[in-house]
Amino acid sequence: MKNKTNVIKSATYLTLFVSLLIFILSFIQIRDTFNVEQMNITIISLFIQRFLGFVMLLMITSLRKRRFFAWLITVISLSTSIILTIIHLNILYIFLLLIQIYCLIVFVVNHKAFVRETSKPSIKLAFLFMVLIMGFLFINALLSVTHLNSQLTLAQSIDRLTDYLFIYGGASRFGRFVFYFFWFIFGVCLLLLVRPMYYDIFITPQHKERALEILRRDGQNPSSYLTIEGDKSLYFSDNVDGYVAYGLVGKSCIAYGDPVCSEEDIIPLSVEFMNYAKSNGYDLIFLGVTSKYLDKYKEIGLQQLKYGEDAMIDLETFDLVGNKIAKLRADVNHATKAGVSVYEYKPLEGRDTTIEEAFTKITNEWLQDKKSSQLKFTVGDVNLDDPLDRRYFYAKDESGNIIGFHVFLPFDSKNGWLADVTRRLRDAPSGTTMKINVEAFLKFKEEGYKWASLGDSPLANVRDEANSNHMYEKMMEAIYKNVNQFYDFKGLHRAKEKYNPLWMPSYIVYVKNNLNFDMILSIVKIQNANGASDYLKTYLADTFRKGEKNAK
After folding, report:
1. What is the CATH topology of the domain spanning 205-300?
2. Cβ atoms < 10 Å from Cβ of 443
3. What sign results for the dihedral spanned by CA atoms 120, 125, 126, 132?
4. Rounded to the nearest 5 degrees, what angle is found at the Cα of 518, between the Cα atoms of 287 and 257?
5. First vs last C-alpha separation in the chain
6. For 299-344, what is each residue's pLDDT tens digit?
7. Which fold has domain 316-449?
8. pTM for this structure?
9. Rounded distance between C-alpha atoms, residue 193 and residue 130, angstroms
10. Which span out of 34-48, 110-124, 296-310, 330-344 was modeled with the highest average pLDDT?
11. How many CB atoms lie within 10 A of CB 253?
12. How far is CA 319 from CA 136, 329, 450, 456, 481, in A?
């Protein structure tokens, strides 16, 4: 399999080399010894070579991503170029000919590797553009014949049109306009043909309403509500009532959480989505799944890797009594003595600009203090303009100023609440975050809810002896222990330990024996597009500022 991949890569890079060389060679000057007819034939031939070289250059990126139409266009271009190379055969062209034949054979033999489909609306649009432009050119040729002062036949008019299209439009302005217009539209059509296919990108109110209905009924994963954030695409099944939220990074398709559907539909929906990813040439990862459906995932050939732990609070037994919760109790008491009080904000019952402006101020300061850009995909946003079922709790200091707020998301058919967004001012009294959480949890308990979740603690206790993958476990353990200056994994875990939670394992699930470093890296990139460089840049900036401060 690896050898096959390397052969395809070699053919792709050789195609890049050939296309550049063909494009450059097509500008070789034509000798004046040709008669006019030979001159025109040669000009057209060189133009076609130049165009084929340019087309293959356009296809390289899509070819590397294994898109079917890129493969088809490249095979056609190589075949045409081989014919032209044979016509213009010389020593240099023999070298080109051998490379092109090799590339063509590799692509044809490995045609099954190029399976990523094109967006169907894009295909329709490409063919519509081509029909329109060909219709425009034919009508223009017909008008030239029927013009009162024209002595041209239809064949002569079409012949002149050929000059316009292949010999730089001739001397007339109209000819140059036809030349540039036609080839510009042709290039647009080629790009449309390799535009990737996405299923049900989440952009419409109808999608949102349908997803929300399924989510409220079947969203058992504590992070299920994040599937309807606008940074994800939604794949709605054709066969069952459910969907999968996902994002694409390079060659990876990252599904977030478990598929959202009834328990009996988990296998058919998962298989359907696996086939979608496979048919489009993506490596599939389910990120942040619970242990509930692991056996079902194994049935269909998926493998698991522990990714971290989710801090779950059993609200029926939750209180601030006992030694195990002493640190949390101390933090809450400190905040209470400092005059911190907690309230619930209900934007659906009436908007309050003062409260919302305070939330914005807190968010802006919080972003300034972060060691990286705001994370996406696995973390939600405030969403005050579209709160849906979210609940908002905020804290005031003794002067009545808002100093922190949290956003809670429902899960498990509204039987539990996830603390998703947690923000406070840097000078808020110690214990403010704990005070907001505890007050919210006690209110949820009073209202009869079963669970609260503090969310994932990434990379914590990733050893899973029952399903061990030692190489990646060691890599994640090393990250957890050694890169806390970039992202405070340990501090986050310690803060959640204060609540004495039930630690529920969280997993990455992937096609068996198909996990690689690029897939792991894609998980980082989908949460932060700048990746590790973002953390490193901020860390170096912090180090520089500390150095300046110490120097003073």
Report:
1. Aminopeptidase (3.40.630)
2. 16
3. positive
4. 5
5. 60
6. 999 988 888 889 999 999 999 998 999 999 999 999 999 999 999 9
7. Aminopeptidase (3.40.630)
8. 0.67
9. 12
10. 330-344
11. 26
12. 77, 9, 13, 22, 32
